[in-house]
Recover the amino acids of this structure.
């Protein structure tokens, strides 16, 4: 049976997809990946990312300032983000990728927290969900989300924290992104978490071209491998594959207000 998937996190505006968009989207569609959300990382990519989404039916855009690029983000870039969100461009579905990161050598964490607060305020103002990055910062992120109270909520992408941390996000109304980490046998903690969380709180993602699956180390990750993440998730979950696929698709459509995809 063929399933329809939404890759809710793919940096499709980077190589190896740049200049090969049609071929890459065709490969994704062959695997059942009919829709792809592309989150921005820096303000200088906002305009080109929106054009990319406008040029290709399967693509949808999220705009945000990623914490890993904190040295590039200043008031001018935040103003650019505010202006783009206010114009409410077609195919804009979220604010992201935003969040917190304590894994960096020089995290400038106070600045990260300020920038996150400002972007959560923009998401609230424009009634958009958020796509959240979090490394070694789950507790601090949960506290920030509790204070911000963004009505549309969002997703903590690429989650690799504890069950208790995942449950804390879910209690706040946030979804959890399931990606290629679960393809590694050594990732028993994350595999166990994804097996136990409510199915209605999960979203499928690749984070391509990053986070390659087991067996593809050293190669760029690709959106069609969302289908492989799904297969592994089915091995971990008690529900039948049909139910898992339907729920993942519905979760993505509901959170990001996506149109109904059409299976290839």
């Amino acid at each position: 049976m063929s399933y329809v998937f939404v890759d809710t996190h793919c940096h499709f505006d980077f190589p190896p997809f740049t200049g090969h968009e049609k071929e890459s989207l065709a490969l994704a569609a062959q695997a059942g990946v009919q829709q792809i959300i592309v989150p921005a990382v820096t303000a200088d990519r906002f305009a080109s990312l929106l054009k990319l989404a406008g040029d290709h039916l399967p693509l949808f855009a999220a705009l945000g300032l990623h914490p890993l690029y904190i040295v590039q983000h200043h008031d001018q870039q935040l103003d650019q983000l505010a202006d783009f969100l206010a114009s409410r461009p077609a195919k804009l579905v979220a604010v992201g990728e935003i969040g917190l990161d304590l894994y960096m050598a020089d995290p400038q964490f106070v600045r990260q927290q300020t920038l996150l607060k400002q972007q959560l305020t923009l998401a609230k103002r424009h009634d958009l969900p958020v796509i959240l990055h979090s490394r070694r910062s789950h507790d601090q992120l949960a506290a920030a989300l509790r204070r911000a109270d963004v009505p549309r909520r969002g997703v903590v992408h690429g989650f690799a924290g504890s069950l208790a941390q995942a449950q804390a996000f879910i209690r706040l109304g946030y979804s959890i992104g399931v990606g290629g980490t679960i393809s590694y046998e050594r990732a028993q903690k994350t595999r166990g978490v994804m097996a136990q969380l409510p199915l209605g709180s999960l979203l499928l993602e690749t984070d391509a071209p990053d986070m390659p699956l087991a067996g593809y180390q050293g190669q760029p990750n690709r959106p069609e491998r969302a289908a492989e993440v799904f297969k592994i998730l089915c091995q971990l979950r008690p529900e039948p594959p049909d139910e898992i696929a339907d729920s993942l698709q519905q979760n993505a459509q509901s959170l990001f207000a996506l149109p109904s995809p059409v299976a290839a």
User: Anything to note?
Assistant: The chain is about 40% helix and 15% strand. The chain has a mean pLDDT of 97.
